[in-house]
Amino acid sequence: MKLVLLIFVLIANCLGWVTVKISVSGVVRCSKAFEYSVNMWDEDSSHHDLIGAIQHVKPSGPAEKAQQAGRFDIVGVASEQWPGDNEIEPRMTVEHTCGTEYACVCKAFPGTGVEFTTTVDFDLENLPSGLVYCDVCAYAKKRRERAGKHHGARLFGHYGGRG
Predict the structure, then answer these.
(1) Do 98 and 32 touch, CB atoms closer than 8 A?
(2) How far apart are CA 38 and CA 106, in angstroms?
């Protein structure tokens, strides 16, 4: 019986089954009035799994209040169950209207097989060169637009679906 249990544990470990808690908090800043959405993804070669999201936030008031209102906390769980894949590849997308009608930037984090917690600070007017549009942005935009069509939500200056 102990041998069967040992074999099962070894097979599960070889297959790469892993579940990881992801926690990201931070601030999104802009000196102008803006709207934003923040999403955390597990980036995979064939598709990207949503871990957590803060959808369509529109700070109000003067720029100082808008910067304070740009805080976010995302907590979620991601799993990998593919043979040989025992890490989560966390990616963050920030869709925003700071100084533009629409933009999206990505932040990649190192792959991890253990709990991941970090804090980030985005000054949308002075982004580091490594934060650029990526293919995960297309997933974020599609998800946000689909939600707007179902709920008639106002999305970055446009009404989705009804309105």
Answers:
(1) yes
(2) 10
- pTM equals 0.74
SS3 101: coil
Q: Which residues have C-beta within 8 Å of that of residue 110, sequence separation ≥ 6?
A: none
**8 A C-beta contact, residue 66 and residue 99:** no
Residues 6+ apart with CB under 8 A from 4: none
**Lookup: tokens for 17:** 């089954």
Per-residue pLDDT tens digits for 18-77: 888 999 999 888 888 888 889 998 887 667 778 888 766 766 555 545 454 578 899 999
In angstroms and rounded to an integer, the radius of gyration of the C-alpha atoms of the chain is 19
CA distance 67 to 86: 37
Tell me the domain boundaries of the chain: 15-155
